[in-house]
Amino acid sequence: MPPSAATDEFTDGAGDRLVGAALGSALAIETRGLTKVFGAQRAVDGIDLQVPTGSVYGFLGPNGSGKTTTIRMLLGLVSPTDGDHEILGHPMPQELTTALHRVGSLIEGPAFHSHLSGLANLRRLDAADARSDASSSERRVHEALDRVGLKPAANKRFRTYSLGMKQRLAIAAALLAPRDLLVLDEPTNGLDPQGTREVRHLVSTLAAEGITVLISSHLLGEIQQICSHVGVMRAGQLVAQGSIEELRATQTAQLVVHTPDPRLAAEVLTRVGVAAVRYEDEVVTGEPGAEPPERISAALADAGIRLRRFAIDRPSLEDLYVSLTGEGFEVRS
Amino acid sequence: MNAPYSRRPWLRWAAPGAALAVIIAGSQAAAHWPADAATNLPPRTAAQLLTDVQRAQPTALSGTVTAKMSLGLPDLPTSGGNPTDPLTLLSGTHQAKVWYDGDRQARVAVLGDSAETDIVSNDKGLWVWQSADRSVLHVAEPSGAKGFNAYGDHARSDDRARLPEQLSTPEGVAAWALKMLDPTTSVTTTSNDRVAGRAAYELVLAPKTSNTKIGSIRIAIDADHHIPLRAQVFARGANKPAVNVGFSSISFTKPSASRFDFTPPPGAKVTTPKKALHAAPKAVRHDRLGGTANTELPRVVGKAWSSVLVGKVPTKPAANTKDRSLQDALKLLPEVSGSWGHGRLLDTALFSAVITDDGHFAVGAVQPATLYAALGRN
Amino acid sequence: MTTTRSSPLVPRSDTSRGARKVGRFFLSELGLIMGRRRNQAGLLVLAAMPVILGVAVRLTESNPRGDGPPSFVDDIVGNGVFLAFAALTFELTLFFPLAIAMVSGDAIAGEAHSGTLRYLLTVPAGRTRVLIVKYLGIVAGSFIAALTVTVVSALVGILLFGTGPLTTLSGDQISLGTGLWRLLISALYVAVGLCALGALGLFVSTLTEQPIAATVAVMIVTATMWVLDAIPQIAWLHPWLLVHHWTDFAELMRNPPDFSGIGDGLLVAVGYAVVCLLAAWARFDGKDITS
């Protein structure tokens, strides 16, 4: 369990936390064979999502790959056709109210009453929470607005907000009560680079406080630097999942040597332990494995091989992502 | 799973479905409940019942009388909201509230759609109030007479339980039916009927001739108070009454005296016919039937159940709109012709009527052929 | 969802907590309904109708008695309080149902349309609790509408025509106090009828994500019921129509007041409300929120 902010304020929530802790779940979100069929289409096809407590989980996939449907199932908005899941150790949907009270969420962009001010919208959401404490409501609403920097615009009508302000208000709504889990669906969608940076900064601050974050995006680049874990969806299926390190480890580094002496170079490389050595024209490639690059280059130099280029290419996660999800547009029907 | 319908969403619909079923079943049960309540009355013969009725003491009562007409006439649009429009009374369902103090004060309120006609008989005379045109007809007792006794004694000597609207109360219709009793009619009784929640006997009058449209007349008589509670007229072969007039609720507690007070409200048109008191009820009836009584006197052709009333209608139709609409309605009736002439036929479940083009009419509780025969004898 | 799905193993039942916290949610909902410009304008139109009616009758004081449908319009000249009865009768045919159809269309379909529904549900507000609060909002709207029209029209009527004892349909007179008392009962009865329509509206509102579609559907249902109620050939159906007893508060203007029509009307209203609310629950509790 992460050290959670202001737990003592929610005395009646503490018992539920113990229930969650007693189940000993190290996973903030766990799904087993979660499936949603809309008509003939399997929007989500038996996924086993595992979001470790305390992680920042990047939930990736192209548009239409089933991310949003999955998130809606996680939050009880859509009933699964099959499979089951637990949120913070609570089986869903049986303990939905208990679980969701500790979950802040942003689903498919901000949506508020346009004729109400940002402040009034947050007050309404807090009043709607069956478990929120009325006496601390005002303080929490203002703190949440302050946190996302909307205090100056608190009394402006929602319809006058810019897209970035709307997005920040939605995040403020997710922070109305102390949370253990944030589910943020495309929080950077439609934001300019400055706004994207702000959201990233906010998320990493929250994660540093110990809140588990599930953040979805169709662009790996936008969230890669703040994620500890990643899951990749494609066509309704979870095609990869794990910590960034685990995923990186599945990627093999490539040694590339440009030389006018390819045959000789290949022999030297094989000798020092580089695997899968091949050469063609004046380019030699191989998999260096655990062999330190300086030893390889020294061996080549000792053999008197003339080098034009010596490089070890480590594929980026982006390459992995593209290889998993395919390039360009993908429309499923 | 704790939620049995989380994977079977349709299970939830059992809740509204069950509620709907309970409501429908409950309303049906409530509608039939009084009839199903057990009663256990000793059988009584027709003679005993009739004697009971003769001996019945006038009793204070208040209640609601419901009249349901299913003559097979098209429902006429209610015009002007006057609930005692005779045309309106011929079809549909009508309600009247009745109060009677057991002596000589009575009040009948015929309920219309946001309208009401009240007939009040009290010690100041007879009042007829019509809310539709805010009119009051007041027939006072002659000055100097002591109270309302003249009318009261007259009523008592004639028929102790007489109420003003004689033919629209169960008592009135029953009295009319009793006069029909003669060898042409078979009279039987049933017990253990229930009307307005009260145990009742039923007197069943069935014509012996088949030359009539009337199948039977059934009069329900209260087992305790021996007053008629309901009268039903069945067409031959029908199992639902064509005319059903009876109490839908009744209580034998005496209404408060103020129930029979009547003061014309401000702004009402009060008319006071200067006629002798005894003529008053007739005058009222005359007025209400539209004043067509003074023309050629009609005759009765045939006997008992198969009798036919033959006569001539006034030749010059009245100019007011209601009569004109009556003329229009006549044109909708099917044309008939025969050796007796040519005219239009109104054929209902209980009676038929013919109006010839030259203004003769024949009406009776018989088949049209009998009417034609009666006209032919003209 | 909160009440029906909570596991018996969870010590605190969601129902009791929900009930305690419905108050704050309800006040917020009421503020939302009353804060909408559209609803404010609607209430203004409702209140303006009796003023127009009163002024029209005042200007044409001659008051010819036509063959039209019976109403209290003829009695207004004699006593201004009848303007309130006339206004209630008049607005029941179109304006009241339209107001309720609008509010109930906003209730679920409107929130779904604007996307705020998904945030309400993940707050979490609890689906059953959302339905309860939404319905309470419609109920409050019904009473506000009926009472506003009644008070405004009684005041305008008294101002224009004066007042005094009221002449009942039975020809007897009742005191002004008794008359106002019966007027209040009439207004509350009208409000209860509107609440039943609101339950129907709430159900329709759970079927669509277009508030206008829900509003139009409720109006079509209401208009159909009025039409069916006017066809004598299907009299057997009339007692089952929600609107059949709606104007039966006129029976209170008899002497003694006849409560049987109102009693039947209340039973029908409760029947509609129960079935429609359960249907709304059945639909909403299992509905996939994809907006």
Automatic annotation (TrEMBL), chain A:
GTP-binding listed as a keyword: no
Keyword entries, A-Z: ATP-binding, Nucleotide-binding, Transport
Gene Ontology MF: a single term: ATP hydrolysis activity
Official protein name in the record: ABC transporter ATP-binding protein
Organism: Flexivirga endophytica
SUPFAM superfamilies with a match to the protein in the record: P-loop containing nucleoside triphosphate hydrolases
Domain ABC transporter: 29-260
Family listed: Belongs to the ABC transporter superfamily.
Record Pfam families: ABC_tran
Species classification: Bacteria, Bacillati, Actinomycetota, Actinomycetes, Micrococcales
TrEMBL record, chain B:
Coiled coil (residue ranges): none
Keyword field: Signal
Domain of life: Bacteria
Gene3D superfamilies: Lipoprotein localisation LolA/LolB/LppX (2.50.20.10)
InterPro entries xrefs: LolA/LolB/LppX, Sporulation_related, TAT_signal
Segment forming the signal sequence: 1-29
Official protein name in the record: Outer membrane lipoprotein-sorting protein
TrEMBL record, chain C:
Organism: Flexivirga endophytica
Name by which UniProt lists this protein: ABC transporter permease
Lineage of source species: Bacteria, Bacillati, Actinomycetota, Actinomycetes, Micrococcales
Pfam families with a match to the protein in the record: ABC2_membrane_2 (PF12679)
Record bears the keyword Transcription regulation: no
Bilayer-spanning residue ranges: 41-60, 80-103, 135-161, 181-204, 216-239, 259-282
One annotated GO molecular function: ABC-type transporter activity
PANTHER family with a match to the protein in the record: INTEGRAL MEMBRANE PROTEIN-RELATED (PTHR37305), MEMBRANE PROTEIN (PTHR37305:SF1)
Alphabetical UniProt keywords: Membrane, Transmembrane, Transmembrane helix
